Amino acid sequence: MSFFAVIMAGGVGKRFWPRSRRATPKQLLNIAGDESMLRMTVDRLKQITASEQILIVTNSDQEEGIRREIPEIPEANIIIEPEGKNTAPAIGLAAVIVQSRDPDGVMGVFPADHHIGDLTAFKTYIEQGISVARDMMGLVTFGVIPTRPATGYGYIQYHERAKDDEPVFAVKAFAEKPDYQTARMFLKSGDFLWNSGMFVWHVDTIMKSFQDHLPELWDSLENIKGAIGKPVWNSVLTVEWATLRSISIDYGIMEKAQNVYVVKVDFNWNDVGSWDAVHEMHDKDENGNVSQGDVIYHGANNNLVSAQGKIVALVGVNDLVVIDTDDALLIIHRGETERIKEVVDGLEKEKRDSLL
Amino acid sequence: MSFFAVIMAGGVGKRFWPRSRRATPKQLLNIAGDESMLRMTVDRLKQITASEQILIVTNSDQEEGIRREIPEIPEANIIIEPEGKNTAPAIGLAAVIVQSRDPDGVMGVFPADHHIGDLTAFKTYIEQGISVARDMMGLVTFGVIPTRPATGYGYIQYHERAKDDEPVFAVKAFAEKPDYQTARMFLKSGDFLWNSGMFVWHVDTIMKSFQDHLPELWDSLENIKGAIGKPVWNSVLTVEWATLRSISIDYGIMEKAQNVYVVKVDFNWNDVGSWDAVHEMHDKDENGNVSQGDVIYHGANNNLVSAQGKIVALVGVNDLVVIDTDDALLIIHRGETERIKEVVDGLEKEKRDSLL
Fold it and tell me: Which CATH architecture fits A3-270?
């Protein structure tokens, strides 16, 4: 039994425009610290497994940037999806590749673009998950103890303890992103955890789950598996992929399966879903400002400023997000950063590709 | 009798940072139109006199930029003040140089950095002023009919008409920048005009005024005049200049002299004193935004954006002034642009000379 870490790095992160672009998506940006989110994700996982057993699922736009950022990972471990089809197909593709390398392998799935504050705790929790995957043939999720009534995360409801002396519980239900009242109830009840989007399971367990709950996808994955290492690989992958429907692993499998467990984790976790989250997770000056770069404030509070190679002066303005790059400058209010999509959609419509 | 136009171009315009810098001050910026304010000032004056009779008073920091911007003016017509001493010494220096070229000359004084909308009317009014200067040996000011209770301008109170068929009046008093209540009263009374900072007089008249009202300055100016065209010019100018006190022409002469007239002018005039004035004087889109460069707005109103070589996106923000340059970005609220001085003063204190 060996452990393979699969990093999901297919997203673009439109909400981080103008820093995020097709070729330099969110996970290649250093928005959560001094290094890129992908680099920090890989470094976290290298505590648990060897570089040779870390796989990255991505798309052709990002391939070059990822290879440059993570040179220590073997070329064959960068898996290129022909097209984004949500998480279930991407995880299935990784699963058959892991299975071809070690039919007794355990695999973990990790978003490339989340922030986790405590490396030691992370290692401990993942290893607890690996035991559950191996000993109990479970589909293991990781649920973060919530600290506020967040409406931006999905939740996992847990019930009885599944393992003595370890924070492992049976899962009762999954909940989509709640409204604020529901989120408050979730927080108060104590039975709900934030769904971190990380999973651990034995390859046999997940493949059996595909067979049971997504049989058409399973058929395709079996065909793809048969082509691994053969000249037909690319054509089989492309043909099969075109037939797949987009579906998330949560909706397609986790919400339906019976053998689902959750490791209840207690660390500083953030999905870094927006510039608002970046403001939230960083240390602030005495006026609540977060600065990346050379910024001066005169009577300006609670702003987030990111700029390079220039001085930025904010005078008498509050609650702004200011993101400056060589070819684009964005100014938006904190709390309204969802509207960045309007800008990006507009640029797409006008075919201003150099800015996308 | 010939007419000399003297352009006062010594100011830096800190309030236009980060576009204005020591070497590229306000008057060298194209903030009021497609060309620099100095270029527009010179072109206005070339309607009235020859390039050879246009003089520019400035300082050594700006000399090179001005020569490049206005190459048609003879080198000897760029007059370098050893040090800024306010308007009375600068005008006196220009007066003795004009006198040395034509003892019967009439000179006009024009700020380099004001906006005047109507070129034809400008020419007419200045020519009316020249007649008054020549025929009545008056100190001629130009007073703009106010259109609102502006608190940022000085005012001229006029009384009886001094010339038939022309809008020339005797001046009763000068008023400093008023408070809002006073400005409303000025507007209502109809007796007050905005002091445009432009003047016309015969060189004999202004030199006699210096002798009467600022005799120490007059002594120095006579010494300086004696050195014109001689090898001692630079040393005499430097030595005399060091002894001068800073004083404005308004305070030192105009408020004390008896033979002061005002030409009542009716044109679109703006001293372009701040980014707020730039917003005010430009055409706006349907949401009140003024853009210099490639700017997109989503639910953003009444902003002024100036940027080059990049796209700027403003989302859901109102009443901002956003000025982007290669090495500095300023974001400030409209109506608070006086506070730009705080930024510049801070940079001076930190000796960040490249940004000044």
Answer: Alpha-Beta Complex (3.90)
